[in-house]
Amino acid sequence: MGLGLLLGATAVGKTLLLKALHKMSLKEALGELDELPPTLPTVGTNLTDITINKRKITIRELGGCMGPIWPSYYGDSEAVIFVIDAANPTQISSSCIQLLEVLTAEQLQETPVLILFNKVDLPCHMSLIEMKSLFRMDDILACAKQAVSVLEVSAQTGKGLDQVLKWLHSHFKGKNLP
Length: 178
Description:
Elements: E1 2-8, H1 14-27, E2 45-52, E3 55-62, E4 79-85, H2 92-104, E5 113-118, H3 128-135, H4 137-143, E6 148-152, H5 161-171, E7 175-176
Parallel strand pairs: 1-3, 1-4, 4-5, 5-6
Antiparallel strand pairs: 2-3, 3-7
Helix pairs in contact: 1-5
């Protein structure tokens, strides 16, 4: 079974993202999301199964407050999704430090990483160009040993989530279902 990690600072939208991806995978239709349930900050971990083209992938969401112990979960993961809040400029520096720690972790040197700039539905969000500049994304991508992809998404509206599902499908072996 494929196991992935969903990481990011507190309140970047990881839980809502996971619920939206799960809901989309159940419908197997890539369109508008119905109303999503309210979320609370994750303390600990959440395991969620997502089925894409009859392939089951388990995503382990680790709460942002658990950052210091994230490395203890790296060994089992086939891929990492790292979420950044594109509408919260005060969180940029801490998210950048966490991202660099993930990308330089020895256990993840060959593990593909998907960086998601979330909350692009909010009027105050920074553009992809601004986010890439603030994170010096070109330098990060040039130095990263693993494959790194970057997408803009909105867990609230579903924008870009079809691309996340495609990325998951292409980067996970997963378990084929009957």
